[in-house]
């Protein structure tokens, strides 16, 4: 079995983002449903249609960073440009949909303000704008009022040709009735789960998802990718088979996915967490398991959710002991601790090499960490960190580009 099957990418995306705010996931799917029907009527090629449907599902992903969800749900579009900018940068830098990223940037721009030739994604942006407007209108108004609303705003807020096309499709396919009944969900999910996603695209979508977790807290931006890089370096230096290295890679990448459900104020808490806060923080492991257990190789899942277990049974969430933990699971646990020690967090600066070595050696001698893996870290410390830093550099550079361009576009 492959570590991650392409058909499972959409369920993982949906399940993860649902942990942040189910309203946005529901809204994104409803918009995608409307967009898919219009694209089909327009004769859009199948693969492009599927790509644009995923774009529609993710069109508000920037709101997970900018906390504009309430304004968006209330149709307060005067105040939602932050998430449009951030979503554009996010999809451009970290998804297979980068060629359509401008559509996300402009999806709140009215038709009458949208200069012809402004962007290659103009039609897609206006299509998103229309579908977004339809769904938001329906949240506060009766369905029978929609045609009047659309025709009143045709040529102003919305593309008049798209408005007429939408109204024709509504008569044929009962789009609004399917939205109200929930029928749209099974239709959309069947379409998206049938995607022929390549391994490269699957990898990019997973990376995008992990970034959406880490980028909620700037101090954790590099952790997952540093931990992943360290895990792969350790696996390679131990001479593990390529297939096992691949499982370790995906387990490490997905290990903190459950932090999507942890409030930012706890992720960025500047001091020692209280007992209740720590209990909440620890739930990220079980949340990760709930998200991925049905969609990834079982061994990948175990690697991901056992990264806080210790050989002496003092870890969590299950208090497993040495005999319960495979070499891959032990390896990722060491990589997670090493990444935490060398990284800057909200409550600490990065530790010196001397202190890192002292802490790792102590945990190994006290029977908490695997001696073989820890010994490898201590004997090849500089080479391992240098290789991991090189792997993470593009991630940090991309994040810095996002920050710089966000400031430039936001003005």
Features:
411 residues, mainly alpha, Hypothetical protein af1432, 2 domains, 22 helices, elongated
Explained architecture:
- The chain is 65% helix and 0% strand.
- It is an all-alpha fold and 411 residues long.
- It has 2 domains: 6-193, Hypothetical protein af1432 (Orthogonal Bundle), CATH 1.10.3210.10; 216-410, Hypothetical protein af1432.
- Helix 2 (22-41) crosses helix 12, helix 6 (81-94) packs antiparallel against helix 22 (381-410) and helix 14 packs across helix 19 (327-342).
- Mean pLDDT is 87; it is low at 72-78.
Give the overall form: elongated
Q: How many distinct folded domains?
A: 2
Number of strands: 0
Largest sheet: none
The CATH architecture of the largest domain would be: Orthogonal Bundle
Q: Any idea what the radius of gyration is?
A: 23 Å
Could you state the CATH homologous superfamily of the largest domain? Hypothetical protein af1432
* Overall pLDDT confidence: 87
Q: Ranges with pLDDT <50 over ≥5 residues?
A: 72-78
Strand content: under 5%
Q: In the CATH scheme, what's the topology name of the largest domain?
A: Hypothetical protein af1432
Class based on secondary structure composition and strand pairing: mainly alpha
Order of helices and strands: HHHHHHHHHHHHHHHHHHHHHH
* CATH level 1 class label of the largest domain: Mainly Alpha
Approximate helicity band:
55-70%
Question: What is the gist of this entry?
Answer:
The chain has 411 residues and is mostly helical. It contains 22 helices and no strands. Helix 6 (81-94) packs antiparallel against helix 22 (381-410), helix 9 packs antiparallel against helix 10 and helix 17 (275-292) runs antiparallel to helix 18.
């Amino acid at each position: 079995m492959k570590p991650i099957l392409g058909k499972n990418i959409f369920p993982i995306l949906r399940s993860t983002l649902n942990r942040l705010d189910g309203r946005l996931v529901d809204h994104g799917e409803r918009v995608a449903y409307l967009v898919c029907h219009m694209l089909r009527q327009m004769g859009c090629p199948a693969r492009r249609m599927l790509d644009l449907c995923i774009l529609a599902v993710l069109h508000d992903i920037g709101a997970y960073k900018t906390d504009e969800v309430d304004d968006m749900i209330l149709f307060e579009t005067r105040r939602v440009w932050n998430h449009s900018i951030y979503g554009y940068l996010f999809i451009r830098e970290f998804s297979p949909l980068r060629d359509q990223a401008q559509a996300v940037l402009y999806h709140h721009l009215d038709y009458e303000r949208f200069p012809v030739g402004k962007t290659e994604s103009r039609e897609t942006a206006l299509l998103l704008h229309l579908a977004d407007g339809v769904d938001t209108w329906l949240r506060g108004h009766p369905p029978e009022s929609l045609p009047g609303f659309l025709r009143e705003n045709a040529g102003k807020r919305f593309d008049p040709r798209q408005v007429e096309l939408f109204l024709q499709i509504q008569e044929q396919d009962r789009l609004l009735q399917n939205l109200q009944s929930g029928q749209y969900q099974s239709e959309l999910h069947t379409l998206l789960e049938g995607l022929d996603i390549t391994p490269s695209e699957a990898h990019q979508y997973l990376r995008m998802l992990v970034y959406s977790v880490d980028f909620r807290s700037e101090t954790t931006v590099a952790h997952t990718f540093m931990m992943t890089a360290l895990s792969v370096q350790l696996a390679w230096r131990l001479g593990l088979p390529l297939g096992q290295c691949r499982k370790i890679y995906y387990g490490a990448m997905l290990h903190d996915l459950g932090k999507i459900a942890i409030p930012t104020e706890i992720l960025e808490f500047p001091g020692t967490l209280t007992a209740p806060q720590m209990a909440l923080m620890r739930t990220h492991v079980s949340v990760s398991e709930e998200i991925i257990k049905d969609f990834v190789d079982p061994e990948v899942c175990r690697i991901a959710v056992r990264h806080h277990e210790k050989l002496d049974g003092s870890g969590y969430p299950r208090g497993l002991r040495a005999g319960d933990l495979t070499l891959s699971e032990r390896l990722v646990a060491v990589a997670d601790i090493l990444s935490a020690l060398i990284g800057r967090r909200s409550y600490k600066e990065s530790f010196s090499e001397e202190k890192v070595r002292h802490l790792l050696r102590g945990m190994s001698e006290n029977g908490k960490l695997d001696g073989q893996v820890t010994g490898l870290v201590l004997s090849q410390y500089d080479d391992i960190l240098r290789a991991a830093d090189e792997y993470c550099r593009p991630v940090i550079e991309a994040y810095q580009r996002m920050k710089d361009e966000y400031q430039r576009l936001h003005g």
